[in-house]
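User: Could you walk me through two proteins back to back? I'd like the raw sequence and the C-alpha cells for each, with a short line separating them so I can tell where one ends and the next begins.

Assistant: Of course. Protein one, sequence then structure:
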Amino acid sequence: LPGDRQAVVKHLAALDRAGLVDGHRHGREVRYQVRPDRLTATARWMEQVAAQWDARLATIKRIAESPAPPT
C-alpha cells in the first residue's frame, strides 16, 4: 500500500524522539530497538491518566443521573 513505509518510518522516528526506542544507523537502514524500561514507565503513566479520566467521568455520570433539585 502506498505510504505505509513512510508512515512506519515517521512513527518510529517519533518513538525515537520520545525515548521509547533507540534508532541506530546500519548502512542505509535505521534499526530500532525497544527500550522496555521506558515503555513500562510510559504504560504506568498512561494507567494513571486513564484512572483520572475514569474518576472524572464517574463524577459526571453521577451528577447527570442524580435527581434534579426542586425549583
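----
Protein two, same layout:
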Amino acid sequence: MCSGPAETTIAQIGRELGITRQGASKNVASLRDRGYVTLSASATDGREKIVKLTPRAIDYLAAQRK
C-alpha cells in the first residue's frame, strides 16, 4: 500500500485492511518501531499522518519478490 507514488495515510491503511483507524495506527507504530516506515504530518490535514517506507522496507520487499 505504501510503496506506490501516492501518499498513504493511516486511515487509508485501515480502510484497505478492513480494520479500525486505531488498529491500523497500532500496526503502523509497530512497523515504525522496527524501522520499516516513517510518519510525517499531512500537508492538507494536521490530524492525518503520512506513512512512507524506509530503505529497509524497500529492500525487504525487493527480497520477498525475488
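The longest helix spans residues 21-33.

Let me know if you want the two compared in more detail.
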